[in-house]
Amino acid sequence: MLVTNALWDLAVGRRCLACDQAGPAWCDRCLRSVVDLHERRTPFGHGVVAAARYAGQVRTAVVAYKEHGHLALAAPLGRLLAAALAEARPGGGLAGAAIVPVPSSTAATRLRGNDHARRIARQAGVRSGMTTLTALRWGRPITDQAGLTASERRHNVAGAMVASAPRKPGSAALVVDDIMTTGATVDEAFQALTSVGWRVAGVSVVAAVDARRALAPHLPLRYREGKN
Ligand SMILES: [Zn+2]
Asked: Which comes out higher in pLDDT, residue 72 or 107?
């Protein structure tokens, strides 16, 4: 099905973006079909659990949600993130851990009128029975990461994120984000949180971009969409 058709149906608000069935914007059957829990590594070697691959209907849903304001998709995207969170918590442990979303860049939030990643994080928090804390923010403006090489991405975000300290030093944080491209933003979140006393117990994302495609300059821009 063409993406444009899927978006049109979403705008009407009565058909699944993938199978075109009447009903919710992303039906249960299609949503379950994209779950593909897998682990990726950031440049600094931190493990990240992704619920799905950033392709096909997942990409359609994320673009519709982030770029076209289809906020009803926050709930199904939050369900995917909750699945990744469950995988990142071996044995369902880490009672008392807080979900800490990676902030959207200030410019991106202003443009979209809402912090899309935080909204998905709250949905996942409710499903997982965990508190969501806004403990991270950007301390300085950053450039849009799309189109940058891996080393440019690292340089772009290095030292740019600021964390507020936990009430108790050593408190566990579960970092969450929507899409992982190279993992440079996750590394920066890790650094900011641990420097003020958080223990980062896991990192989860809705979907990860195929590492081989993430930075290939000949591919269409949509393959290179990443954080901010
Ligand atoms: Zn469907």
From this structure: 72
